[in-house]
């Protein structure tokens, strides 16, 4: 079994090297490719893909980690709700992210009831078991997770689970990509489009980036050779002075995406402006709970203090998320800030680029 897997890995690495050779032979002009998927960031670091590429092809990480892009205002709100006595249901990485009033872990240490889930549906079970307590699910993530949260909310409505609500902080990836493209400090030539998100929204969701902004795009799967195939496709577009959305993940991604999941989202959520860490408020880049399900919106249930502004100290996660700085540019990287003792969300989250670089010691530059 191990031999079979080892042989497979050898063939994958050989294919990566072959693609790197083809990319070098194409002799592209200097170009910057941004990945907007935490799993891509980790795979690039894990397999040292950046080091396989010619010097003029630069890979940078963008806002692809849902934990990392969650704004301080949302962290502040959910900690306040925890402090008011509600049971907080959340995914693991969110617990340790420091917010203006501390993290959910801090709130739990002070007596709050914070529960880590593996599936949003588990939050309904918590609500059923605690009919006399408020249960608030922290809804974060991109188009990948939003459908399951939508189904959770519609199921809660079907059961009339009045004690259940959601603090919705969901975000949409294409508007954030557009915001980065128009930022003159970012200078992005191409996007490695995310795999999981694209299974939901389809390749069509990025057409405007290619057509309106001239940005080369390629949807990539998660294996190292998948990523290298997508980079090679991007180089082909750059060399040909053209831009379109290449699908290098055809085994999972279709042009129109998953229309069932899209319908689930549309039935529960409305598109709204959203605040992103580092990127600020981006118009129409998030989801809010629509009128039909407004009783399940935690934002309507709690009286909260205004968010506290805080000094991020040495943490430059905001710049890292925009590709304006590398994790290694941070003075705290690897010293004051490590996965065991993280200062910012990019080191807390298993999908964060600081955590990826720390773990795999990616040589960026
Ligand atoms: S290394 Fe730590 S402190 Fe620095 S940007 Fe990353 S998460 Fe923030």
Which secondary structure elements does this structure contain, and how are they paired or packed?
Elements: H1 2-26, E1 31-35, H2 38-46, H3 49-52, E2 57-61, H4 66-69, H5 72-83, E3 87-91, H6 104-109, E4 113-117, H7 121-129, E5 135-139, H8 146-159, E6 164-168, H9 173-181, E7 190-193, H10 195-201, H11 207-213, E8 216-219, H12 224-239, E9 245-247, H13 259-268, E10 269-276, E11 280-289, H14 317-321, H15 345-348, H16 353-360
Parallel strand pairs: 1-2, 1-7, 3-4, 3-5, 5-6, 7-8, 8-9
Antiparallel strand pairs: 10-11
The protein binds iron/sulfur cluster (SF4).
Portion in strands: 15-25%
Helical residue percent band = 40-55%
Task: Give the CATH class of the largest domain.
Answer: Alpha Beta
CATH architecture label of the largest domain: 3-Layer(aba) Sandwich
Measured between the Cα atoms of the first and last residue, the distance is 38 Å
Number of strands: 11
The ordered H/E elements are HEHHEHHEHEHEHEHEHHEHEHEEHHH
Structural class: alpha/beta
Largest sheet: 5 strands, parallel
CATH superfamily of the largest domain: HypD, alpha/beta domain 2
- The global form is globular
